[in-house]
Amino acid sequence: MTHSQLKLFVKIVDTGSFTRAGQELNMTQPAVSRAISTLESELGVTLLIRDRRKGIVLTEVGKRILVLFRDILKGFDKVDQEVAAEKGFEVGLIRIGSFPAASAHFLPKIFRAISEKYPRIRFELHEGSIDEIKEWLAARTIDVGWIIPPNEEFEAVTLLKEQMFLFMREDHPLHQHDRIHVKHLDQEPMIICKGGYEAPLYELFEQGGSRLQAQFIVHNANTALNMIEEGLGMAIMSNVSLSLSALPPHVVIRPLEPQPYREILLAVPSLEESSLAVKLFIQTARELFSI
After folding, report:
1. Which backbone phi and psi does 187 adopt, to 5 degrees?
2. DSSP string for 120-155
3. CB within 8 Å of 223: residues ≥ 6 apart
4. pLDDT for 166-194, tens place per residue?
5. What gap in Å lies between CA 156 and CA 140, rounded to an integer?
6. Among the residues of the chain, which ranges form H helices?
7. Mean pLDDT over residues 94-119, rounded?
8. CA 61, CA 77: separation in Å to the nearest integer?
9. In this structure, are residues 237 and 168 in contact, taking their beta carbons and an 8 Å threshold?
10. End-to-end C-alpha distance for the chain, whole angstroms
11. Residues paired with residue 94 on neighbouring β-strands, in sequence order
């Protein structure tokens, strides 16, 4: 196996195409096919299957080897970064996983702080759901990512502990209260916003002895707000500073009792095995945001 073969295999998986992988690595289509055939012959197993409907499909052993190949390639990157650091400058690529609200809140300041000092460090952003980010971390598709508890398999630091509030229409009877106990939400139609709100929400209702009636499930906070404005239910989400820019007309916020919180973590598969660039990213994030 050669470095170029490993890099090509991972590129094919990431792009989902022999052709696009070859284009990005300046290789002809026949050269790409030969390299993968040689790699599979050397290993004695089939790694990839070309399916007319599904495109490139990894075999089961291919899925396991992909994780190992990513670790090996990361090892090459770490060598390059160590050598560069010895010469007095930082280089490297940081692959980051984030959900949209975290991207908007954290990344601009982190990118600016690192780029001002280390302009040769590059960033690659993958945006998705919390579950997708955890899958990317496990598969080593990304180096570092923002996640929400529960977390048992990754090393993580808490960057933010944000208060969650009740959002409702201003004509709802409960709006007259300055603070609303969760027991008053028993069987009220709730709009569940995914992306890390689910776990603290279910815990809140369980602690308060109330039954959670999930009327709608959405993926976007602004969608939930617009549905509240139409009188379709209430939602419990984080404060305005992170995920909400402006409230629609007729939507109000009330604090809850007991007060729920949501933690946002910055996670890596292994801090010890992380590259210098990734450690710098984590250090910068902690200096800027850590509670």
Report:
1. 65, 15
2. TEEEEEEE--HHHHHHHHHHTS-SEEEE-S--SSSE
3. 193
4. 999 999 999 889 999 999 999 899 999 87
5. 15
6. 3-15, 18-24, 29-43, 60-86, 100-117, 130-139, 198-208, 221-229, 240-243, 276-289
7. 90
8. 24
9. no
10. 45
11. 123
Give the residue-averaged pLDDT of 275-284. 91
Residues near 257 by beta carbon (within 8 Å), at least 6 away in sequence: 179, 180, 181, 182
What is the pLDDT at residue 291?
67
Hey, what amino acid is at 232? L
Average pLDDT, the chain: 87
CA 94 to chain centre: 14
- Give residue 107's pLDDT: 94
The one-letter amino acid code at 175 reads H
Query: Scanning the structure block, which residue is given the tokens 């899958």?
Result: 135
Neighbours of 169 (CB within 10 A): 19
b/e sequence 247-286, b meaning 16+ C-beta within 10 Å: eeeebbebebeeebebbbbbbbbeeeebbbbbebbbebbe
Helix (H, G, I), strand (E, B) or coil at 181: strand
Residues 6+ apart with CB under 8 A from 85: 276
For 38-89, the pLDDT digits (tens) are 998 899 999 998 877 778 889 999 999 999 998 888 888 888 777 776 655 5
